[in-house]
Amino acid sequence: MTERDIIGIFGTMNAGKSSLMNLITQQESSIVDSTPGTTADTRVTLMELHGIGPVKLMDTAGYDESDVLGEKKRKKVDAALKECDLVLMVIDPANPGLAEVKLILNVSLEEGKQVLLVYNLFSASDEATVAFIEAKLPELKSFPKMCLSALQPEKRAALLELILTNYIPKNNPTELLPFVQPDEFYILNIPMDEETPPGRYLRPQAMAEEYITRHWGFPVSYRMNLGQARSNNPIEITRWESFLGSFGRRPKVIITDSQAMDIMKSWTPADIELTTFSVMMINYMSRGKLNDFAAAVRALDTIKPGETILIAEACNHSRIKEDIGTVQIPNWIQKKYPGVKVQHVFGREWPEPEELENIRLVIHCGGCMITPQRMAARLRDLGKFGIPITNYGIFLSYIQGKNVLEQVLKPWK
Ligand code: SF4
């Protein structure tokens, strides 16, 4: 998975956001039209920016659209604002829309974003009004800025220079499996079921295999028959033992699907460490905040009937039979914490702030289908209400025993 810095282009309708996007990408990534509200949704372009590396550019709808569709658009703009690393604030000096500019800047500062201003000149005389605008909204003076016409291709170099000079890239990818050592074996326990897509591994599994190989380790996959393992079928027990016995050197760590934790807590030999794909993924996507997710699971010790747990799964795959998020985890909650209510969000869905207030705990999947920036935005949203957030792998280990959770955290020291 490529880590990308996210640059969002924001402003009011017709400030020239799409033209700026096209200037950066040097192509018609965005439709440019003087009809207000041309950018119906957030448009995304992936590209490489020399000096920064891989970036995701987002061209957003105008912040000042007021009809019903506009309200929906505005929520998408807010989501983009929370997700991006750099805010490129485009202002047409002739129609500055200062109320909206102020709103965007307030959210940007609250969310800790870096901000650059671009005054987009539709005529040369517009530049003269910049000082007047900054006198009306003095906070504009504190941001690095430039004046240009986004329709002039020769301005691209100066715009990129503004970004390169002032933007501090935030991408600092966390190591996926920091404990991997060269020339050591690592077992990937992958119990395939009806939900497993044909022809490929799930993203966390593929990422783990690639990471171990890239770091000169030896990934070895095992397809556990979970049904047979749970019924203590001697065929599966013998198969597992024979698999473990076939290594000339003991494997270092088993990385398992979290749903197999009820088996793996007792099937893992004492001299091999154990963790889960989900724990690996949430540490990676949250940029090393595994300890916070592990501490948050303690909220279960004091949860009361009637309180609500939100299960957040970043996938939109079709869910069949024993789905982990919609069936297995709710079943465990019902069994261990009767009377506790469960809500779900899937894919990019995320509750509005007013909907978060009643949530007592969030259990999030590994989040491999959203960006680390979106994960960070979710953590900030929850932090504002003091809502703890834990993870599938941590939850499924914890309900097997506190010692089991310690076991899966051990490789992470
Ligand atoms: S988004 Fe979540 S549920 Fe889907 S594959 Fe990634 S970690 Fe698993």
CATH architecture of the largest domain: 3-Layer(aba) Sandwich
Shape: elongated
Distance between the termini: 24 Å
The side-by-side strand order for the widest beta sheet comes to: 2-3-1-4-5-6
Largest sheet: 6 strands, mixed
Number of domains: 3
Estimate the mean pLDDT confidence.
Answer: 91
Bound molecules: iron/sulfur cluster
Number of helical segments with 4 or more residues: 16
Could you outline the blueprint of secondary structure elements for this entry?
Elements: E1 5-11, H1 17-25, E2 43-49, E3 53-59, H2 68-83, E4 86-91, H3 98-110, E5 114-120, H4 130-136, E6 145-148, H5 156-166, E7 185-189, H6 203-214, E8 218-222, H7 226-230, H8 234-245, E9 253-256, H9 261-267, E10 273-276, H10 277-285, H11 290-296, E11 308-313, H12 324-336, E12 341-346, H13 353-356, E13 359-364, H14 372-385, E14 389-391, H15 392-398, H16 402-409
Parallel strand pairs: 1-3, 1-4, 4-5, 5-6, 7-8, 7-9, 9-10, 11-12, 11-13, 13-14
Antiparallel strand pairs: 2-3
Helix pairs in contact: 15-16
The chain binds iron/sulfur cluster.
Describe the protein in words.
The protein is of the alpha/beta class. It has three domains: 5-166, Rossmann fold, CATH 3.40.50; 185-280, Rossmann fold (3-Layer(aba) Sandwich); 286-398, Rossmann fold (3-Layer(aba) Sandwich). It has 16 helices and 14 strands. The chain has helices at residues 17-25, 68-83, 98-110, 130-136, 156-166, 203-214, 226-230, 234-245, 261-267, 277-285, 290-296, 324-336, 353-356, 372-385, 392-398, 402-409; strands at residues 5-11, 43-49, 53-59, 86-91, 114-120, 145-148, 185-189, 218-222, 253-256, 273-276, 308-313, 341-346, 359-364, 389-391. It has a six-stranded mixed beta sheet, sandwiched between helices. Strands 8-7-9-10 form a four-stranded parallel beta sheet, with helices on both faces. It binds iron/sulfur cluster. Iron/sulfur cluster binds at residues 202-204, 281, 313-315, 365-369.
